[in-house]
Amino acid sequence: SMGLLLLCLFPSVTHKAAERSDDRLKPLISTGMYALCRHPGVIAMGLCCVCLYLLCPTASMGMLCILDMVLDLIYVKWQDVYIFPFTISDYEGYKKTTPFLIPTIGSISRFFNSPSER
Length: 118
Description:
Blueprint: H1 2-13, H2 17-20, H3 33-36, H4 40-55, H5 59-87, H6 91-97, H7 105-113
């Protein structure tokens, strides 16, 4: 699950098109994990929390994991509404074709057919 989380996060930080952008808006990444859903890190983070709880199954770890997942959901919703539409080019078009959190059959198909940037 940690590997999946890193796979979700590092392409967005190190995307090569970001270096070529003369625009003040960042280019959109719509291949690889970002073809599945708009926030694939949430699923990976949830799996990390479940694994942490399974490693240390205490009440406090369970509460920490639940709190972490809830805060992560609030954060990505805030990004989706207030940050990304103003900082990423063509984010509204991306929202029309890519689900928010749960991958669909179409997005899974796009994931497998996207270039090998996974």
